[in-house]
Amino acid sequence: MIEGKVISVSLSSERGPKKPENKLELNSKGIVGDVHSGTSRQISIIDISHIIRFRELTNARDTEFGEFAENITAEGLHDIDFQTFDQLLIGDSILEVTQVGKPFYDQFRELGNYVMPRVGVFCRVKKEGIIKLNDKIEYIPKVYKALIVTLSDRASAGEYEDRSGPKIFELLDSYLKKLHIKYQIDKKIIPDHSEKLRDVMTKARQDKYDIIITTGGTGIGPRDITLETVQPMLDKEIPGVMEMIRMKYGQEKPNALLSRGVAGVMGQSLVYTLPGSVKAVQEYMTEILKTMQHLIFMLHGIDSH
User: Fold this and answer.
1) First-last CA distance in the chain
2) Cα angle: 269, vertex 176, 278; to 5 degrees
3) Among residues 6, 223, 251, 275, which one has the fewest Cβ atoms lying within 10 Å of its Cβ?
4) CATH number of the domain enclosing 176
């Protein structure tokens, strides 16, 4: 477990440098009395190591806490590779990372305008509370959870080797590795049974999986029940994803137009229902992965532009 410590807290009702305070009071919009309350960057944090580095690079005078426009000056966080949705437990409050600054490579040219956008960590309030000097900071990394569900009577009975589920795993695993995030991918094989699929989807929603991908059961056969089961469980549909895939691949292979797969949102989960063939999985995942991270950010109210 990585821990840090609060060594200064500051706020300001106007943009620019902030003034040190004894404590920060947090509500659902951010810091009470701070100019960034109500924005996606409610709270800004910088590690003291970056301030020290700034002084070394610029031979600058000693800077005051809050002069970089940070709300919290911390120590012990400099080795963390922060990612969006990581959490920080500080005192009795919980913060969630919404944006991470980029490392600096040359001299800082201005204080707040140059430093914070490059090395600052910006957060929003997940749990209200009070933050004070010397509060411990506990870092909890976001672990993305994905569930792959194969629907197949034969595969669930051990009469047929599931190939589409492992293909989804392979492609999703490769994609998530490139994002440099922590994740886990779970797999299930169930028969083409509506009640069993509904139970799996309901539990996945309760367990707050970020991504749920099914394979199989999207055709028009008597055992194809995926669409009829999943579609009523969606809070919102994302029709353009599947429409584009069908049109793109259906121009050369008309059979691709016959899949009734859907994409949508169920609670905090992105849901995709894919056909059961390995080739179709390859085609669908190639297109789905192009927008997956952006959709996750959108789902949680993060502006990633």
Assistant:
1) 32
2) 80
3) 251
4) 3.40.980.10
Dump pLDDT digits (tens) for 190-212: 999 999 999 999 999 999 999 99
Q: 278-288: b or e for each residue (b if 16 or more CB lie within 10 Å)? A: eebbebbbeeb
The torsion angles phi and psi of 118, rounded to 5 degrees, stand at -105, -35
- Give the separation between CA 129 and CA 94, rounded to whole angstroms: 8
Q: 60 is in which domain, residue-wise? A: 3-140
| 35 and 89 belong to one structural domain | yes
Task: Tell whether 188 and 269 lie within a shared domain.
Answer: yes
Using CA atoms, how far apart are residues 302 and 305, in angstroms rounded to an integer? 9
Query: In this structure, what are the phi and psi dihedrals at residue 274, rounded to the nearest 5 degrees?
Result: -105, 155
Residue 66 lies in a domain: yes
> What domain count does the chain have?
2
The CA-atom distances, in angstroms, between 303 and each of 41, 98, 126, 162 are 10, 9, 17, 38
Query: Which of 85, 74, 21, 19 minimizes the C-alpha distance to 52?
Result: 74
DSSP tag of 189 = E
Establish if 165 belongs to a structural domain: yes
* CATH code, 52: 2.40.33.20
The pLDDT tens digits for 134-181 are 999 999 999 999 999 999 999 999 999 999 999 999 999 999 999 999
pTM value is: 0.89
Domain membership of residue 30 (yes or no) is yes
Rg of the chain in Å (alpha carbons):
24
Residues 6+ apart with CB under 8 A from 264: 231, 234, 235, 236, 237, 238, 270, 271
Same domain, 148 and 43: no
Q: Which of 262, 282, 270, 249 is nearest to 218 (CA)?
A: 262
